[in-house]
Amino acid sequence: MFLEYSSLLNDGTYIFVAKQAINEETHQKLKNDFEKILNRSNAIKKEIND
Q: How confident is the model at residue 32, as a pLDDT?
């Protein structure tokens, strides 16, 4: 999933930790949670339109 978003991310070092319960979640739930985390941490590049 990280590769899917890597081109949208600001430069930096990213560390993701997952609990065992990750195996019980659907792909869509994981993707939604992943997007929330990236947005909350301001990891996604902001486009500047001049």
A: 94
